[in-house]
Structure formats: structure tokens, C-alpha cells
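Q: Sequence in, structure out?
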Amino acid sequence: MWTDPELLAALRQGDEEAWDEAFRRLYPSAFAGAKHPLAALTPAEAEDVAIEALTLLLPKIKQIANFDELRPLVITIASRKA
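A: Exactly. Output:
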């Protein structure tokens, strides 16, 4: 099990297992952001948007001070994409 600081450090190094763990932790938030009622997306469309939002975190990972900042960021990205 990764601690948040360990996970963020591993993400910055491009560790695939860390990205798998980050996906597991952040996907529910990304999906919830994509399912905003005003977006009116189907579950499949919301899933696509959530995955895209998680992908868009890649270039931002070095700017993040701690792992807790990733959740609101991915929600914002997903809701705007939706």
C-alpha cells in the first residue's frame, strides 16, 4: 500500500504500478465529475470522459504539491470535459 507522498513521488518517476494505484483511487472522483447532472452523459460517455480526465493529469503531475490536490483537479477536468 502506498502512502500519499510515496505515491506522488512514484507518479513523478512514471512508475506504472503507481499510475494503476492512482487510477484506482481517482477514477471514482473523475467519474462523478463527468456524471454531473447538467452534462447528461450516458454512463459509457462519462467513463470515457473520466479516463480522459485522468490522462490529462499526466503533464500536471510535477506541478502538484501533494496527492490530495489530484482529486479536486481530476473532478474539475472531468466536469469541464463533460
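The two ends are 32 Å apart (CA to CA).
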